C-alpha cells in the first residue's frame, strides 16, 4: 500500500535521505524513527507530494505520487507535524469542507461521532483560531480519518495531546491498520513506536541504520527480548546509534593514515 523504492532527496550538496526503500502492506503499521534531522519528515513530504524525490519512486495505494498525483492523493489521509487549519472556519465547518472535497455520504453523522469521540462536541461551532494546540491536533486527525483512507501518513502525531487523547490516537492507528489499511508514522516517542508498530525503520542522517520487527532489531543489535529484563526499543535505538558512531569514528581514524600512506607513496 505504501512503497518507497530507492528514494533519495538532496538539497544542494546535502543529502537528506539516501536510497531509502521499504513497503508497508495492507494491515501494516510502520514506524519511521530517527534523531533530529534524520530525514523522517523529508520522506513523509515526498510521500504526500510536497517534496519531489531527487531519485527513486514513492507510491501510495499503487499510484506513483508524482506521476499520478490525483488518484494517489485521493487514497491517503495526511496528518502533518504542525496542524494547518483555516482559523476563520469553525471545527464543524472544517469537517464539512473536507467531507465536501471527498464527496462523503452521511457526513453529518460521522462528524458528530468524531467530535464526540475527541470530546470536541462543545467546541464544534467555535472558530478553530480559538482552539488550543491539542484541540487543533485532534481536529487535524479527524480531517485525515473522516474519509476512512486506505493509507494514513502521520508525522509526529502525539505532540500537544493529553494522555487520554494520546491513548485514543494510539488505539485509532492500530484499529485503522487492523481494518485492512496501511499506516506509516514518524515519531520521537519510542514507547509509542514499540506499543503499536509492526515494523520499524531507524534512520540517521538520511541512511537506514536498522529495519524490521522489534525482534529483528534486537537480533541485529545483540539485545534481548521479552520479560521484565527484555531490552526496550530505547536500548535498541541507542545501540544502533552507538554502532553507527563507532563505525564513523573508525573511518575518521583510518582516513588520515590512508592519506599519509598516499603522500609517502
Ligand atoms: N527545505 C529544505 N532545504 C534544505 N535542507 C532541508 C530542507 N528540509 C530538510 N532539510 C534538511 O534535511 C535533513 C532532514 O530533515 P528532516 O526534516 O527530514 O528531518 P527529521 O528526521 O524529520 O527531523 P526532526 O526529528 O528534527 O523533525 C536535515 O539535515 C534538514 O536540515
How is this structure best described in words?
Residues 2-230 form the ABC transporter domain. One of its GO terms (molecular function) is ATP hydrolysis activity. It comes from Deinococcus aquiradiocola. Pfam families: ABC_tran. With 265 residues, the chain is an alpha/beta fold. It is 42% helix and 23% strand. The protein has helices at 40-47, 69-74, 91-101, 107-117, 133-145, 163-178, 190-196, 214-221, 233-264; strands at residues 2-11, 14-24, 29-34, 55-60, 63-64, 76-79, 151-155, 182-186, 199-204, 207-212. The strands form two sheets. It has a six-stranded mixed beta sheet, with helices on both faces. Strand 1 and strand 2 form a beta hairpin. Helix 3 crosses helix 4 and helix 8 (214-221) packs across helix 9 (233-264). It is globular. The N and C termini lie far apart (54 Å). The structure holds adenosine-5'-triphosphate (ATP). Adenosine-5'-triphosphate binds at residues 11, 14, 16, 34, 36-42.
Secondary-structure element series: EEEHEEHEHHHEHEHEEHH
Radius of gyration: 21 Å
Helical region count? 9
Please count the beta strands (DSSP E, at least 2 residues each): 10
Sum up the overall morphology in one term.
globular
Instruction: List each distinct ligand once.
Output: adenosine-5'-triphosphate
Largest sheet: 6 strands, mixed
The computed structural class is alpha/beta
Return the average pLDDT rounded to an integer: 89
Percent helix: 40-55%
Q: What spatial order of strands do you see in the largest sheet? A: 6-7-8-3-9-10
